[in-house]
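Whiteboard transcription, Tuesday session. T.W. wrote the structure tokens on the left side:
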């Protein structure tokens, strides 16, 4: 039997994405409390996310969302990594408030953000070990959060994944206007 890489690439990238989700899950968490969620986005859902990113430019004017919306269309799949908001009860003051109970509603616990960052780093290290191209995107993550694809997560980041001859997520040109 002969299996050409081009014929199994998508399946291989999906398997790597699954390994990346496992790496995010097993990454260290503050106080050992797991508030991380992950998911894989493929096919037409990537286009839905791209369209949401384009629509968001109208509300906030951040033009790089247009570039990123176009850029994720080059991905085989995307990983979503998010965190629920949960005060860890350390009263560490890292969030800017002296105690967890004095924190203003909507201000995330710093440990939640740190846990998310460690999970992202672990997932990206796995991708690097397996030689696929990635880029962490908060723009696509914010759009996924608005779509509530990680039900109830208050902070979501996206990692597009590609296995092509050149990383499509770098050397990107800025987009100044929406394509018609």
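and on the right, the sequence the group agreed on:
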């Amino acid at each position: 039997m002969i299996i050409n890489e081009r014929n199994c690439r998508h399946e291989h990238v999906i398997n790597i994405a699954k390994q990346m989700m496992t790496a995010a899950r097993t990454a260290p968490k503050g106080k050992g409390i797991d508030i991380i969620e992950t998911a894989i986005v493929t096919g037409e859902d990537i286009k839905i996310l791209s369209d949401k990113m384009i629509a968001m430019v109208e509300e906030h004017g951040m033009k790089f969302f247009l570039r990123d919306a176009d850029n994720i269309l080059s991905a085989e799949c995307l990983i979503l990594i998010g965190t629920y908001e949960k005060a860890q009860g350390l009263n560490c003051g890292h969030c800017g408030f002296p105690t967890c109970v004095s924190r203003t509603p909507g201000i995330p616990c710093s440990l939640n953000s740190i846990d998310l960052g460690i999970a992202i780093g672990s997932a990206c290290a796995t991708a690097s070990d397996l030689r696929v191209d990635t880029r962490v995107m908060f723009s696509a993550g914010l759009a996924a959060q608005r779509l509530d694809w990680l039900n109830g997560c208050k902070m979501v980041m996206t990692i597009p994944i590609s296995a092509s001859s050149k990383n499509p997520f770098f050397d990107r040109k800025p987009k100044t206007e929406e394509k018609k």
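Someone added at the bottom: The first helix runs from residue 5 to 26.
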